């Protein structure tokens, strides 16, 4: 009879540990942590991550789609957060992501081939240079190594796109 409370307690602890691990591995938690932004529960998620190797270099692409009401709530929060800027994104960031030419220098772009940068007309963007711990993109084109996080929120589709690039 004394074993039942012990087994019940052990089961409760295991269930709690399982819930914590599942929460920490969830796309919502990971995106919230990368963007340092509280996110509502998405209705759909898509993830693609090719980080690996000795230094953990790679690209991470994520997409979280929210219900219209959650999307409106998120939109209000982003509008009040100074780190999120109304679109369009800055010229330097667009050039770094998609490539192009500026001042006689051609840039290849880091966005994965075969994937289109989402065409968002109404929304907000987030940029963090994790290498220099800044939201300014002025060092982006001159550095030889990059650790960046880019968030792009589409107000019309209630969809958040997340991109990290580590080289």
Describe this structure in words.
The structure is a single chain. With 167 residues, this protein is an alpha+beta fold. 31% of the residues lie in helices and 28% in strands. It is built from 4 helices and 8 strands; from the N terminus they run H-H-E-E-H-E-H-E-E-E-E-E. The protein has helices at residues 3-24, 27-35, 68-80, 91-98; strands at 44-49, 58-65, 84-86, 100-102, 105-107, 123-129, 147-154, 159-166. The chain has a 6-stranded antiparallel sheet, covered by helices on one side. It has a two-stranded antiparallel sheet with strand order 4-5. The longest helix is centred in the first third of the chain and has 22 residues, at 3-24. It starts with a helix and ends with a strand. Mean pLDDT is 82; it is low at 14-25.
Highlighted features:
4 helices; 28% strand; globular; 8 strands; two-stranded antiparallel ribbon; 167 residues
In short:
The protein is α+β, with helices and mostly antiparallel strands and 167 residues long.
Main pleated sheet: 6 strands, antiparallel
| Count of alpha/pi helices | 4
Form type: globular
Report strand order across the widest sheet. 1-2-8-7-6-3
Mean pLDDT: 82
Uncertain regions spanning at least 5 consecutive residues: 14-25
Return the structural class.
alpha+beta
Sheet-strand content, in percent, reads 25-35%
Report, as a whole number of angstroms, the end-to-end distance: 59 Å
Rg of Cα set: 20 Å
Topology, please?
Layout: H1 3-24, H2 27-35, E1 44-49, E2 58-65, H3 68-80, E3 84-86, H4 91-98, E4 100-102, E5 105-107, E6 123-129, E7 147-154, E8 159-166
Antiparallel strand pairs: 1-2, 2-8, 3-6, 4-5, 6-7, 7-8
């Amino acid at each position: 009879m004394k074993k039942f409370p012990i087994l019940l307690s052990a089961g409760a602890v295991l269930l709690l540990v399982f819930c914590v691990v599942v929460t920490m591995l969830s796309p919502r938690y990971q995106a919230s942590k990368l963007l340092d932004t509280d996110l509502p529960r998405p209705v759909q998620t898509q993830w693609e991550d090719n980080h690996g190797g000795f230094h953990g270099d790679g690209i991470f692409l994520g997409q979280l789609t929210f219900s219209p009401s959650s999307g409106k709530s998120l939109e209000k929060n982003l509008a009040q957060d100074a780190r999120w800027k109304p679109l369009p994104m800055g010229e330097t960031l667009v050039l770094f992501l998609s490539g192009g030419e500026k001042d006689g220098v051609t840039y290849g772009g880091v966005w994965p081939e075969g994937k289109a940068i989402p065409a968002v007309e109404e929304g907000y963007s987030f940029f963090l240079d994790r290498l220099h711990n800044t939201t300014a993109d002025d060092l982006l084109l001159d550095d030889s190594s990059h650790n960046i996080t880019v968030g792009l929120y589409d107000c019309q589709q209630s969809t958040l796109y997340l991109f990290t690039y580590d080289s």
